[in-house]
Amino acid sequence: MQTPDFSRIDIALLPHSLQSLIECIGIENAYNLTCAYGGRPKYIPKHRDRTKLAEVLPGAALDALIKRFAGVALEIPKADHFLRQLRNLQIQQESADGLSRSLLADKYGLSLRQIGNIRRQETTPAEHP
Prior knowledge:
The protein has six helices and two strands. By secondary structure, it is mainly alpha-helical. It has two domains: 10-77, no CATH class; 82-121. Strands 1-2 form a two-stranded antiparallel sheet. It is elongated and about 55 Å long. The model is unreliable at 124-129 (pLDDT under 50). Pfam families: Mor. Residues 51-118 form the Mor transcription activator domain.
């Protein structure tokens, strides 16, 4: 699977739990964690040798996660939060390039209403105070 272009992600639009993970371990590591464990709880041990998280995260990221969340079962968000935002940006671009709602709906397996809603969303990241 191709790694998403994280530079296009507006972190402020992601769920707070995911924002917290990104702040702790970085966006790419957070994405890898969501791909491996998204949608279910994952216990964060107090010692790195008591977890298989080292198979998913580099040492520094694992240490940061343990330092912040040791002893807690984190509910890991699903990766689709990243993927949906990127898909919507792609739909907005293709719409601006002239593709019709009907073609976009067929291409992405969405309803005409969903395509219309996506097309009306802000195309540039909103400013957040």
